[in-house]
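FORM 12-B: Structure-to-Sequence Request
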């Protein structure tokens, strides 16, 4: 099976390495449009860290977490009897026998069952801190990565769990300087909520992992045998969206037509957007703003989309329910650092412009 190798994230990699080379003091939130390569960047970086620097990677993507039990199951990598002796070793601490990275925090099965039974999330945090202390070695701090943390955004365990986690992350970084903490999210509304959270002010940093710029996109495609015409076509339809570019590369290596794939992808987006606008002529979805429900008005959605006919970026202010609705639908992306909204991808921008081209048909009526 042909694998497309990781490509040129030098700027972001350097920024993360600079963080890892310094004493932990801030939580790092890694964010960006969907499918911009955030997780791939971090996992590729993990592979290239020194073996003595331990990494704990917890992926919440696609996990249904609605209570304490499910949270604990996701958080920990349960060690069964065959590996129990190795776990006792690192708690002495002697950690060299363990892998460089874990998918979760390693825990002996009997202790896991105790945590599961007592349902005290603070006990789980105390255990994690103990493990991280055991892994601190030769001035190399362990690394804790939480991918798609927004999954537990509204989960309550004696209050919102997310705030307990934030306080725990602050303790690990700013207070104890014990571990580097990276939180990855493609949910820009979650990042906006984090950005405006008073308890995190001065306690975190934000790292944007965006789609490739044109120069990087061209180099990536050139390395994979694209002609000048194919490179221009790919940029026109996909922009620098890594997942879209990989699809085109696979298409080309399969001996199929790149232009046909681009046009098919755009047609799908156009159809999806037309269908959504038609649906909004019959129903009024609701979104929550500051614990109050607001109806999504079709004419406001259309008005926002029309703004993208002659521009790439708009402000987040105004018609917030409709903008939030489209961000939730992954049509738009919000960058909370500058308060700007833009389509999640070049394909989305092209689809918006094509659907809005016949603007008189979108006057707010159904059909």
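FORM 12-B RESPONSE
SEQUENCE OUT:
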């Amino acid at each position: 099976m042909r694998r497309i190798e990781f490509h040129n994230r030098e700027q972001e990699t350097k920024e993360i390495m600079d963080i890892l080379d310094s004493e932990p003091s801030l939580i790092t939130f890694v964010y960006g449009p969907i499918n911009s390569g955030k997780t791939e960047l971090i996992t590729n970086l993990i592979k290239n860290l020194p073996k003595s620097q331990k990494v704990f990677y917890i992926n919440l993507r696609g996990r249904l977490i609605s209570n304490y039990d499910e949270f604990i199951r996701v958080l920990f990598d349960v060690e069964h009897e065959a590996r129990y002796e190795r776990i006792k070793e690192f708690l002495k601490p002697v950690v060299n026998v363990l892998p460089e990275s874990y998918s979760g925090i390693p825990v002996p099965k009997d202790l896991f069952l105790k945590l599961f039974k007592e349902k005290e999330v603070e006990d789980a945090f105390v255990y994690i801190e103990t493990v991280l202390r055991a892994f601190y070695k030769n001035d190399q701090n362990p690394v804790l990565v939480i991918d798609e943390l927004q999954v537990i955004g509204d989960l309550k365990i004696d209050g919102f769990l997310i705030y307990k986690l934030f306080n725990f992350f602050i303790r690990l970084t700013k207070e104890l300087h014990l571990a580097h903490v990276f939180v990855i999210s493609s949910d820009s509304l979650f990042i906006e909520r984090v950005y405006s959270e008073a308890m995190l002010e001065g306690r975190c940093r934000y790292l944007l992992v965006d789609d490739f710029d044109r120069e990087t996109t061209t180099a990536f495609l050139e390395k994979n045998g694209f002609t000048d015409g194919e490179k221009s076509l790919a940029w026109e339809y996909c922009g620098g969206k890594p997942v879209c570019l990989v699809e085109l590369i696979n298409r080309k290596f399969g001996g199929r037509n790149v232009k046909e794939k681009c046009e098919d992808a755009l047609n799908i987006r156009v159809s999806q957007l037309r269908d959504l606008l038609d649906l909004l002529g019959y129903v009024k979805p609701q979104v929550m703003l500051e614990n109050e429900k607001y109806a999504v008005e079709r004419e406001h959605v259309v008005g926002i989309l029309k703004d993208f006919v002659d521009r790439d970026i708009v402000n987040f202010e105004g018609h917030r329910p409709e903008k939030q609705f489209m961000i939730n639908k992954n049509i738009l992306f919000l960058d909370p650092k500058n308060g700007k909204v833009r389509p999640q991808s070049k394909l989305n921008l092209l689809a918006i412009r094509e659907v809005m081209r016949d603007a008189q048909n979108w006057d707010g009526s159904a059909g």
